[in-house]
Each structure stands twice: as C-alpha cells, then as structure tokens.
C-alpha cells in the first residue's frame, strides 16, 4: 500500500497524455480477463470494448481519428458485469478490466491523476484477489496472507510492470507513434493478463 501512496505522487507529476497512456497500458494488460469471461459466459461485447481501447491507443499515437470518449463511456458502462448476477470468480477480474477502461476514458477527458491511480489500484487488487482465491491457504494469518500476496510471482510481475511503465513515461517528453506502439506491446504481454490468463483460453 505504501507503494501505491508513492504512486499517487509520481502520477501527479505526469502530463495528461502520460496519465492516459499509463491507464491504457494497465487496461490493456487486464483486457484478456474480460475477453475470456465474455466468451465463456456470453456476457458483454468484448469486441466493442477491444475497439474502444484500440481507439485510445490510436489517439495517443496520433494514428487514428479522435474517439468520442463521452459516448464511449456509455458503451463501456453497458458492458460492465453486475457482480450480483454472476456467482463465479471470473466476473471479478472482468469487472475490474471494464471499470479500468471506463476510468481510462475518464482520464482521456479530464487528465486526472486520481483516475490513473484508480486504474493502478484496480489492477493491483485484481492480482491480490486472484492470488488469495487460487493460491492462499485458509490457515494463514492476516499478516502471513499479506506477505504471501506481496511476494507472489504474479504480484512481483505486477509491481515490475507498473514501475517500468512509469520509468518509460517519465523519460518520454511527448507522445509519438513509435513510443506508444512499444508501450502497447509491453502491455499486451503476448496476450497474457495480469493474472496469467489468455483471453483465448477455453
């Protein structure tokens, strides 16, 4: 949690486009969680959300038309699963991914560091919950559980990814197509999400 408090200060020093790129990269890394859930249960239009996230990347790179973020907020909201309606774990990371995309669009509109920090927190909590559900022992004390989560490979990967994102963005004064393309490739992680799944898994 100390790291995330420190993150708030780092994000406050970024330009608006850097905040959007930070949010988009985290959303990209979470997207397979939504894609898999959508395919397995038939909820939501993952292709529509894919197109919206593509639009954010294209706008950042200056290679496509500017997206109407206000309109797309409504489209994303319509695709956010209601957790009360799904009695399965997979709905939670799908929910996190959709909300992260919603916050990314809000960041595009407002350039708000708090929105970018919210996306980082969503991704962090998504990983923490996955580790607790799939790998933790019921007999662990609260302190042992926190230590187990924080030292798990998936969380170490999450922290390393977030740090690399920040380092790249802080070193880049302005957005250009090549930089954004490389950032997106990093975030795509060969199609593997922040919790280690592929959207094409069956």
CATH architecture name: Up-down Bundle
From the spread of the alpha carbons, the general shape counts as globular
The share of residues in extended strands comes to: under 5%
At the first level of CATH, the class is: Mainly Alpha
Give a short account of the largest sheet: none
Number of helical elements: 9
Overall average residue pLDDT = 95
- Domains, number: 1
In the CATH hierarchy, what is the superfamily? YP_001051499.1 domain like
pLDDT < 50 runs, ≥5 residues = none
Structural class: mainly alpha
How would you summarize this macromolecular structure in one to three sentences?
InterPro entries: DUF416, YP001051499.1-like_dom_sf. The chain is mainly alpha-helical and 202 residues long.
